[in-house]
Amino acid sequence: MHLRKSLLVLASFMSVSAWAMKPLPNKVPVPADNPMTPQKIELGKMLYFEPRLSIDGTISCNSCHNVMADGADGRAVGAGVRGQRGGRGSPTVWNSAFHTVQFWDGRAASLEDQAKGPITNPIEMGMPHHDIVIGRINQIPGYVAAFKKAFPKDKNPVNTDNLAKAIATFERTLITPNAPFDKYMKGNKKALNPQQIRGMKLVEEIGCTSCHSGEIFAGEGLKMGEGNYQPFPQIPGSKFDKMYDITADLGRYEVTKKVEDKNHWRVPTWRNVALTAPYFHNGKVKTLDEAVRVMAKTQLDADLNDGQVADIVAFLNSLTGEFPKQTMPRLPVTENFSITPDP
Amino acid sequence: MHLRKSLLVLASFMSVSAWAMKPLPNKVPVPADNPMTPQKIELGKMLYFEPRLSIDGTISCNSCHNVMADGADGRAVGAGVRGQRGGRGSPTVWNSAFHTVQFWDGRAASLEDQAKGPITNPIEMGMPHHDIVIGRINQIPGYVAAFKKAFPKDKNPVNTDNLAKAIATFERTLITPNAPFDKYMKGNKKALNPQQIRGMKLVEEIGCTSCHSGEIFAGEGLKMGEGNYQPFPQIPGSKFDKMYDITADLGRYEVTKKVEDKNHWRVPTWRNVALTAPYFHNGKVKTLDEAVRVMAKTQLDADLNDGQVADIVAFLNSLTGEFPKQTMPRLPVTENFSITPDP
Questions:
Q1: What is the ipTM of this complex?
Q2: Could you say which of A124, A204, A205, A290 is catalytic?
Q3: Which CATH number fits domain A8-24+177-317: 3.40.50.300, 1.10.760.10, 3.30.870.10, 1.10.150.170?
């Protein structure tokens, strides 16, 4: 048994190196119709931090996807305008450029598509229509100028597609390279400690990496727009289903209305997962060690012991990358009046 | 009349140059017991952007005093946790270091005192007690380390006074020098256009600068902790009292309970006033030209014509300074769990 396990671990570890896990690339995928430019990044950063994109001027993209922190909000579910709460947790914006589909249910095929959603979601930023957003932006001379700079070939650059393109372009700068895991994979064998290496072998051995593979551990070999959807729970009936209300939200089914998509979800990234508690689509699991236990049981029917859980958590902690230093944007002003609406 | 007026203008203008209006100093006043250090500035910046200082993790200092914008929020009154609205507008944080007292009613004698207020205000950040704030910070290793660095001589550096000292220190970096007015006062006579110069003379001539004097146009010759309080309206009974509900909030009286303080207010700064609409303690006046009309009537019994209003607004627009480029803070993380509470 001991020998067999060792061989299994060895085999797994070889395959790890060979394909299942990959270091974060230095470059993000960029769509052909939205090349990155400094002007577009700067405009996108302004818009990302712009509370005037919300109905009452209280919520910006950064409110729920805080780039000064983990790229999310530390809450079980998002918080929108007028004290409203969302139904799902805010996924991190860090490294979201590597995801091939966006949102928990993959309903956006690109960051551009994603950026439009929350603005007109009544419980998020609450704008009744994108035309109203564009109307506001047109009242702010600094934005009109910034759109012209970012989209110099467009006759009427201030429009929703360009707004989404700019935000997506800024988001493509939000990557966290050089995690201890990445350094290890690039040859620095001291970058992971023995416990982390045990955890790395274990996630392959018990099968986590059959879904959590690739550069951001969310699946690999996928084209942009193509989702890696998996059931959660894979094996229904464990105590966790009820304990954490796992099945109430039907996930991908709510988008497709196909029976086979019930309780299916886009596989989330493991990158910076140590920082993005609480866990899962409803944020009901508060700690990473419990999240590991839940996943092992519901997806792989594995009952992990505390040592195994600790090893996996240690490995997942090695996926916390380096967050780049950033400059603050200046939000364009209106002189002598405010366009921020009063509620 | 024409000659008399010209002489008056000349006399006023001489006194303008001589004393009433001053360029913004390059250095802010710093209290002896809270010297500025890079470590304290960095910690203060982190805390300033820290939503975990609010009960439900939704509101930071920056939510209402946005340093990426005008240092306020563009709303009539502040917006706090759980969708609550405040009773007064958010004053700008830019150049607040030059104010000798803080808040509309001057109830804080320093930025340090001010910083503590909103955190435990139930309709702002909503924390029940400062001990709970400190308890949270102690759960975040990065903050504990940052407090140690910022206050290396303190045995127990994580405390409310140091939190306030750090935030105040960051706020002392938020100054906007080199407004066109400042350049003009320092000798560049082309920095103001003829209309702005007319407006500059007019504010002295009609008496605005009897209160709005000095470096930030909020009074001068005051020691730190000493307020420049003035009645608003000075001359009750104009149509504006009702139109903008000027007298309902008793201002300074709510702090002192002295009859003579009824409807008295700290004189607000004119620095960047073009950007901080809407105006006055209750934010009921939406544009700067109307604010000028209201002030002239309620304080000086002057009925300005449209040309005079436009000239004064043009001058006030010359008080918009240069906003320094800033780096974003990184907010310290908690690994494997979140301390952001769910509502």
A1: 0.93
A2: A124
A3: 1.10.760.10
